[in-house]
Amino acid sequence: MADYSATRDRVEHYFDRSATKVWERLTSDAPVSRIRETVRQGRDRMRAIMLSRLPADLRGARVLDAGCGTGLMTAELAARGADVVAVDISPQLIGIAEARLADGLRQRVTFAAGDMTDPAHGRFDYVLAMDSLIYYATPDITAALAKIGNRTDQSIVFTVAPKTPFLMAFFGVGKLFPRADRSPVMVPQAYAALARAVPNLARIDRVTSGFYISECLEMRS
After folding, report:
1. Taking the model in full, what pTM does it have?
2. CB-based contacts of 23: which residues, under 8 Å, 6+ apart?
3. 2-220: CATH homologous superfamily?
4. Are 82 and 61 in contact (CB under 8 A)?
5. 3-state DSSP assignment of residue 137
6. Sign of the C-alpha dihedral, residues 55, 56, 59, 63?
7. What spatial distance separates the first Cα and last Cα of the chain, rounded to whole Å?
8. What are the tens digits of pLDDT across the range 64-78?
Protein backbone atom coordinates (compact mmCIF):
# COMPACT_ATOMS: atom_id res chain seq x y z
CA MET A 1 0.00 0.00 0.00
CA ALA A 2 2.73 2.41 -1.03
CA ASP A 3 0.25 4.95 -2.42
CA TYR A 4 -1.82 4.69 0.77
CA SER A 5 1.24 5.39 2.92
CA ALA A 6 2.29 8.39 0.85
CA THR A 7 -1.21 9.88 0.99
CA ARG A 8 -1.48 9.19 4.70
CA ASP A 9 1.76 11.08 5.28
CA ARG A 10 0.45 14.09 3.30
CA VAL A 11 -2.79 14.04 5.27
CA GLU A 12 -0.88 13.92 8.55
CA HIS A 13 1.32 16.84 7.51
CA TYR A 14 -1.70 18.92 6.49
CA PHE A 15 -3.84 18.36 9.57
CA ASP A 16 -1.02 18.29 12.09
CA ARG A 17 0.94 21.30 10.83
CA SER A 18 -1.13 23.42 8.45
CA ALA A 19 -4.82 23.13 9.31
CA THR A 20 -5.08 22.36 13.02
CA LYS A 21 -6.46 25.78 13.97
CA VAL A 22 -8.89 25.79 11.03
CA TRP A 23 -10.38 22.43 12.06
CA GLU A 24 -10.42 23.34 15.72
CA ARG A 25 -12.55 26.39 14.89
CA LEU A 26 -14.71 24.65 12.27
CA THR A 27 -15.69 21.92 14.73
CA SER A 28 -16.55 24.34 17.52
CA ASP A 29 -19.31 26.90 18.06
CA ALA A 30 -17.03 29.77 17.06
CA PRO A 31 -18.15 32.06 14.22
CA VAL A 32 -16.82 31.10 10.80
CA SER A 33 -17.17 32.42 7.26
CA ARG A 34 -20.35 31.74 5.31
CA ILE A 35 -18.60 29.13 3.17
CA ARG A 36 -17.18 27.33 6.20
CA GLU A 37 -20.58 27.48 7.86
CA THR A 38 -22.03 25.43 4.98
CA VAL A 39 -19.24 22.91 5.48
CA ARG A 40 -19.97 22.79 9.21
CA GLN A 41 -23.68 22.23 8.55
CA GLY A 42 -22.93 19.53 6.00
CA ARG A 43 -20.62 17.70 8.36
CA ASP A 44 -23.17 17.91 11.17
CA ARG A 45 -25.82 16.38 8.92
CA MET A 46 -23.49 13.63 7.71
CA ARG A 47 -22.45 12.75 11.24
CA ALA A 48 -26.13 12.36 12.19
CA ILE A 49 -26.74 10.11 9.16
CA MET A 50 -23.81 7.89 10.06
CA LEU A 51 -24.84 7.63 13.69
CA SER A 52 -28.36 6.65 12.61
CA ARG A 53 -26.92 3.42 11.17
CA LEU A 54 -25.92 2.25 14.66
CA PRO A 55 -28.18 1.27 17.57
CA ALA A 56 -29.21 4.06 19.91
CA ASP A 57 -28.02 1.92 22.83
CA LEU A 58 -24.39 0.92 22.30
CA ARG A 59 -23.67 -0.42 25.76
CA GLY A 60 -21.39 -3.42 25.42
CA ALA A 61 -20.31 -2.49 21.88
CA ARG A 62 -16.77 -1.66 20.86
CA VAL A 63 -16.62 1.03 18.17
CA LEU A 64 -13.74 2.44 16.14
CA ASP A 65 -13.96 6.13 15.26
CA ALA A 66 -11.52 5.97 12.36
CA GLY A 67 -10.24 9.48 11.73
CA CYS A 68 -11.83 10.99 14.82
CA GLY A 69 -10.52 14.52 14.26
CA THR A 70 -11.53 16.79 17.12
CA GLY A 71 -13.82 14.16 18.62
CA LEU A 72 -17.42 15.15 17.84
CA MET A 73 -18.37 11.63 16.70
CA THR A 74 -16.37 10.07 19.53
CA ALA A 75 -18.32 11.98 22.17
CA GLU A 76 -21.69 10.97 20.70
CA LEU A 77 -20.69 7.30 20.52
CA ALA A 78 -19.47 7.33 24.12
CA ALA A 79 -22.70 9.05 25.22
CA ARG A 80 -24.61 6.09 23.72
CA GLY A 81 -22.61 3.76 25.94
CA ALA A 82 -20.02 2.46 23.47
CA ASP A 83 -16.44 1.68 24.33
CA VAL A 84 -14.73 3.84 21.71
CA VAL A 85 -11.28 3.65 20.20
CA ALA A 86 -10.74 7.09 18.67
CA VAL A 87 -7.91 7.13 16.16
CA ASP A 88 -6.54 9.97 14.07
CA ILE A 89 -3.38 10.42 12.04
CA SER A 90 -2.87 13.86 13.61
CA PRO A 91 -1.60 13.98 17.21
CA GLN A 92 -2.63 17.65 17.32
CA LEU A 93 -6.27 16.81 16.59
CA ILE A 94 -6.17 13.95 19.09
CA GLY A 95 -5.04 16.46 21.70
CA ILE A 96 -8.02 18.70 20.94
CA ALA A 97 -10.42 15.73 21.07
CA GLU A 98 -9.07 14.65 24.45
CA ALA A 99 -9.35 18.17 25.86
CA ARG A 100 -12.94 18.54 24.69
CA LEU A 101 -14.26 15.20 25.92
CA ALA A 102 -16.55 15.50 28.93
CA ASP A 103 -15.12 14.05 32.13
CA GLY A 104 -18.04 11.66 32.46
CA LEU A 105 -17.20 9.99 29.14
CA ARG A 106 -13.45 9.61 29.54
CA GLN A 107 -13.57 6.07 30.89
CA ARG A 108 -15.30 4.93 27.70
CA VAL A 109 -12.74 6.34 25.24
CA THR A 110 -9.24 5.29 24.26
CA PHE A 111 -7.44 7.81 22.05
CA ALA A 112 -4.63 6.85 19.71
CA ALA A 113 -2.61 8.83 17.17
CA GLY A 114 -1.72 6.72 14.15
CA ASP A 115 -3.03 4.64 11.28
CA MET A 116 -6.73 3.78 11.52
CA THR A 117 -6.08 0.39 9.83
CA ASP A 118 -3.50 -0.75 12.41
CA PRO A 119 -4.44 -4.26 13.66
CA ALA A 120 -3.16 -3.28 17.11
CA HIS A 121 -6.41 -1.36 17.65
CA GLY A 122 -8.18 -4.70 18.00
CA ARG A 123 -11.59 -5.99 17.02
CA PHE A 124 -14.82 -3.98 16.78
CA ASP A 125 -18.57 -4.32 16.50
CA TYR A 126 -18.87 -1.17 14.38
CA VAL A 127 -16.54 1.21 12.59
CA LEU A 128 -17.31 4.80 11.59
CA ALA A 129 -14.96 6.58 9.18
CA MET A 130 -16.26 10.06 8.41
CA ASP A 131 -14.35 11.83 5.63
CA SER A 132 -11.15 9.99 6.57
CA LEU A 133 -10.92 8.02 3.30
CA ILE A 134 -11.73 10.85 0.90
CA TYR A 135 -8.12 11.54 -0.06
CA TYR A 136 -7.34 7.99 -1.21
CA ALA A 137 -7.57 6.23 -4.57
CA THR A 138 -10.10 3.43 -5.05
CA PRO A 139 -7.59 0.55 -4.60
CA ASP A 140 -6.33 2.08 -1.36
CA ILE A 141 -9.86 2.52 -0.02
CA THR A 142 -10.78 -1.09 -0.81
CA ALA A 143 -7.56 -2.37 0.78
CA ALA A 144 -8.13 -0.29 3.91
CA LEU A 145 -11.72 -1.51 4.20
CA ALA A 146 -10.54 -5.11 3.83
CA LYS A 147 -7.99 -4.67 6.63
CA ILE A 148 -10.52 -3.11 8.97
CA GLY A 149 -13.35 -5.36 7.84
CA ASN A 150 -11.47 -8.48 8.91
CA ARG A 151 -11.77 -7.19 12.48
CA THR A 152 -15.36 -5.84 12.34
CA ASP A 153 -18.33 -7.96 13.35
CA GLN A 154 -21.27 -5.79 12.25
CA SER A 155 -20.63 -2.95 9.80
CA ILE A 156 -18.32 -0.21 8.59
CA VAL A 157 -20.07 3.09 7.87
CA PHE A 158 -17.85 5.45 5.90
CA THR A 159 -17.93 8.36 3.50
CA VAL A 160 -16.41 9.06 0.11
CA ALA A 161 -16.33 12.05 -2.19
CA PRO A 162 -18.85 11.08 -4.90
CA LYS A 163 -17.85 11.43 -8.53
CA THR A 164 -19.88 14.51 -9.47
CA PRO A 165 -19.01 17.06 -12.20
CA PHE A 166 -18.20 19.67 -9.56
CA LEU A 167 -15.84 17.43 -7.62
CA MET A 168 -14.20 16.10 -10.76
CA ALA A 169 -13.44 19.68 -11.81
CA PHE A 170 -12.15 20.45 -8.31
CA PHE A 171 -9.96 17.34 -8.42
CA GLY A 172 -8.56 18.34 -11.80
CA VAL A 173 -7.69 21.83 -10.66
CA GLY A 174 -6.00 20.48 -7.54
CA LYS A 175 -3.68 18.30 -9.60
CA LEU A 176 -2.34 21.41 -11.33
CA PHE A 177 -0.73 22.57 -8.10
CA PRO A 178 1.57 19.78 -6.87
CA ARG A 179 3.23 21.92 -4.19
CA ALA A 180 4.42 19.93 -1.19
CA ASP A 181 2.54 22.20 1.21
CA ARG A 182 -0.84 22.25 -0.51
CA SER A 183 -3.82 20.60 1.15
CA PRO A 184 -4.59 16.99 0.18
CA VAL A 185 -7.02 16.77 -2.74
CA MET A 186 -10.18 14.70 -2.44
CA VAL A 187 -10.33 11.79 -4.89
CA PRO A 188 -13.91 11.41 -6.21
CA GLN A 189 -15.19 7.83 -6.21
CA ALA A 190 -17.60 6.05 -8.53
CA TYR A 191 -19.98 3.88 -6.51
CA ALA A 192 -20.07 1.19 -9.20
CA ALA A 193 -16.30 0.72 -9.05
CA LEU A 194 -16.32 0.51 -5.26
CA ALA A 195 -19.25 -1.91 -5.27
CA ARG A 196 -17.35 -4.29 -7.55
CA ALA A 197 -14.43 -4.37 -5.13
CA VAL A 198 -16.13 -4.09 -1.73
CA PRO A 199 -18.48 -6.90 -0.64
CA ASN A 200 -21.92 -6.16 0.80
CA LEU A 201 -21.69 -2.45 0.03
CA ALA A 202 -24.77 -0.22 0.16
CA ARG A 203 -25.47 3.42 -0.54
CA ILE A 204 -27.01 5.20 2.43
CA ASP A 205 -27.29 8.93 1.69
CA ARG A 206 -25.54 11.95 0.19
CA VAL A 207 -25.06 15.40 1.70
CA THR A 208 -24.52 18.52 -0.39
CA SER A 209 -24.00 21.72 1.58
CA GLY A 210 -22.06 24.42 -0.24
CA PHE A 211 -18.56 23.09 -0.84
CA TYR A 212 -19.24 20.03 1.31
CA ILE A 213 -20.28 17.06 -0.83
CA SER A 214 -20.03 13.63 0.75
CA GLU A 215 -21.69 10.25 0.29
CA CYS A 216 -22.35 7.79 3.09
CA LEU A 217 -21.80 4.10 2.31
CA GLU A 218 -22.06 1.00 4.48
CA MET A 219 -20.21 -2.29 4.29
CA ARG A 220 -21.95 -5.05 6.19
CA SER A 221 -19.97 -7.93 7.64
Report:
1. 0.92
2. 15, 69, 70, 93
3. Vaccinia Virus protein VP39 (3.40.50.150)
4. yes
5. coil
6. positive
7. 23
8. 999 999 999 999 999
